[in-house]
Amino acid sequence: MIRVTAAIALPDEELHWTFIQSAGPGGQNVNKVATAAQLQFDTHSPSLPETTRQRLIRLAGKRINAQGVLTIVARRYRTQEQNRQEALNRLLALIRKAAEPPKVRRKTVPSRAAIARRLEAKRRRSEIKRQRRQTANEERS
């Protein structure tokens, strides 16, 4: 059982691991050993609350397929264990971020002083541009 937040815990059975050959550092070893870790997690898991699931699907973007399976590939390190830990950390960070409820946006109204400053700045700018224009007499010459 992996504790994600105080309310969310993932059973080990819900994480499906696959190890594949990786590009990158490792020399000849890279061609012989499957060190890259591929973690698959079904977002329809009963461990996730519905609101968290919806936010997780939105946050995952292209990493999630049509069936709702989230795939994380970690291949930064030379060892399978380090890549496995990195993939797990990335999944946990994603779920923790999805578990946070979004901040409620409260409507605000600009103060009278702010409105007055904005309008005064517009008037000044308009005056500057008006002074740049050629007058009718200057155009004829």
Topology:
Elements: E1 2-3, E2 9-10, E3 15-20, H1 29-32, E4 36-42, H2 50-60, E5 69-74, H3 80-99, H4 112-132, H5 136-140
Antiparallel strand pairs: 1-2, 3-4, 4-5
Helix pairs in contact: 2-3
Question: Which keywords apply here?
Answer:
141 residues; alpha+beta; Double Stranded RNA Binding Domain; two-stranded antiparallel ribbon
What does the model show?
The chain has 141 residues and is of the alpha+beta class. The chain has a domain at 2-99: Double Stranded RNA Binding Domain, CATH 3.30.160.20. 43% of the residues lie in helices and 16% in strands. The chain has helices at 29-32, 50-60, 80-99, 112-132, 136-140; strands at 2-3, 9-10, 15-20, 36-42, 69-74. The strands form 2 sheets. It has a 3-stranded antiparallel sheet. Strands 1-2 form a two-stranded antiparallel ribbon. Helix 2 (50-60) packs across helix 3. The longest helix is centred in the last third of the chain and has 21 residues, at 112-132. The chain is elongated. The model has no long low-confidence stretch (mean pLDDT 84).
Write out the strand line-up for the largest beta sheet, numbering strands in chain order: 3-4-5
Class by alpha and beta content:
alpha+beta
- Alpha plus pi helix count: 5
**What is the CATH T-level topology of the domain at 2-99?**
Double Stranded RNA Binding Domain
Pattern of helices and strands: EEEHEHEHHH
Give a short overview.
The chain has helices at 29-32, 50-60, 80-99, 112-132, 136-140; strands spanning 2-3, 9-10, 15-20, 36-42, 69-74. The chain is of the alpha+beta class and 141 residues long.
